[in-house]
Amino acid sequence: MIKSFASDNWAGACPEVMQALIDANSGHAPAYGADPYTKKAESDFKNLFGDQAEVFFVYNGTAANIITLASTTRSFNSIICSSHAHINVDECGAGEKFAGTKLLDLPNTDGKLTPEMILPHVAAERFPHQSVPGIISITQATELGTLYSVEEIKAIADLAHQYNLLLHVDGARIANAVVALNSSMKEMITDTGVDILSFGGTKNGLMFGEAVVFLKPELSSLFELFRKQGMQLASKMRFISAQFSALLANNVWEKNARHSNQMALYLGQKLAAIPEIQISQKIETNGIWAIIPEALAVKMQDAQFFYPWEEARNEYRIMTAFDTSEEEIDRFIEKITR
């Protein structure tokens, strides 16, 4: 099957994960997370983030984000996020429906928030008439492929805690971010003061499954109940858990992320050499944003599909994955420049 540049979640499962699924498909195991595979995965996450980390598994990224927000807010709270945030533009109003909270989406040009942007919104100046901010949610790497530095995350965490807010990180591509910044999960998340992380698996080689990591255990006390109500308590949870153990073992997550990042840089260099194409965001992880004339874009999409991003200005998003190869990129470039 021809691969695409549509998204890293179009890729299949990486070999290590596929083998883990096969291995887990043997005999019987207790349901709903009482199995040894889930206990092993929980221990693996503690090794990655620290002994205080509490982890819960769900099927998809929207659930990881929204059930987290629902379980740690009240209906009178608001959530501060970027206007580009996945919870704001790509989750079909799930935050408002299931968490029942107001989203304060702050405009920006690069997908990132700064303390200066956030500060005017952290207090309910017209209490009790105004929704009370409860959580700041940022995405790492952002929806535009850009990155927060470790120092930038810490600055936002410090601001959140100064005003008794929580910091949630949507980490659908957290592995790509950690690799790109030559950091570690603990340094980027635990040590900066992040309270809750949605840890992405599907975009990094899992067949299905995401994880919610609470860095402050007391925040997780009701999560299991919200997960059940949210229809995300997997009966055969071992098939999610086993995948995560395979991903974390021998730093497979790092290998997959590093490769997909490298492929984006390689493809980006090739595209930048085509005069009609203008790279519109700095290539920091495994995504390329580019402004492409419509006729050329159609030709490129026929050769290997990718999505439009902002059609009004002919901007497109081109993604690489753990299984993208230089040979495939070279063939793609040859087709469109022939």
Would you write up a description of this structure?
The two termini are 23 Å apart. The chain has two domains: 13-251, Aspartate Aminotransferase, domain 2 (3-Layer(aba) Sandwich), CATH 3.40.640; 252-337, Aspartate Aminotransferase, domain 1 (Alpha-Beta Complex), CATH 3.90.1150. A hairpin with a 7-residue loop joins strand 8 and strand 9. The chain has helices spanning 15-24, 36-49, 61-71, 86-89, 94-99, 115-118, 150-162, 174-180, 185-190, 223-229, 238-248, 252-272, 294-303, 326-337; strands at residues 54-58, 77-82, 102-106, 132-139, 166-171, 196-199, 210-214, 278-279, 287-291, 307-310, 315-319. It is of the alpha/beta class and 338 residues long. The chain contains 14 helices and eleven strands. The chain is globular. Helix 1 runs antiparallel to helix 11 (238-248) and helix 12 (252-272) packs parallel to helix 14 (326-337). The strands form two sheets. The protein has a seven-stranded mixed beta sheet, with helices on both faces. The protein has a four-stranded antiparallel beta sheet with strand order 8-9-11-10, with helices on one face.
